[in-house]
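Sample pair:
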Amino acid sequence: MTTPFDNKPKQPGLLAGLRASFLTGIVVIAPVGLTIWLIWSVIGWIDGVVLPLVPDKFQPERYIGINLRGLGVIIFLLFTIIMGWIAKGLIGRSLIRYAETMVDRMPVIRSIYSGIKQISETVFAQSERSFEKACMIEYPRRGIWAIGFISTTAKGEVSERAETGGKLLSIFVPTTPNPTSGFLLYFPEEDVIELDMSVEDAAKLVISAGLVYPTPDRSGKNGSNGKE
């Protein structure tokens, strides 16, 4: 004869409990540990590049007796600020124009310099050049939707030669899980659906391969992140 007490759920064993705790600990520790390790490694790399360029009599280690990690970063930041301050002045702008004129006369170096300059200007562009909004577009064909980012309104020859009567938007469609690569596509404004979620939330959605969705707040718009 069986009773309702015969079907009690089995309690997890000691090993199962330890395994669950271990995995939980990994989830908590891994992001923090990897972030600290990455920052520490970058600081060490900058120190290794900058400090050898400092004359021996100005080496901090010579006076304090120990090699403090991060001194190279401080020197690099101070040097960059000073160079930026000089470059904004009349003399600095004149020197930059003269140097670029000299570089333009060197075939191979000219191509390398132009490429690096364009990448730098793109990466360190000011806020008005950042993505405006996240959106949805039908790509790569009708009925299939993709997350994109509205960058600007198409201008010049691109806008003039496109066979559309309305406004044309330039959309960056990122790849997963690396959103820094992707495709630049031009869509008519009426074919672009703007999303309420922020650009950051949309980027997290792309990076997580659709696992992390913004959680709607009380106002109906998307707010903090969560998992469905």
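The chain has a mean pLDDT of 80.
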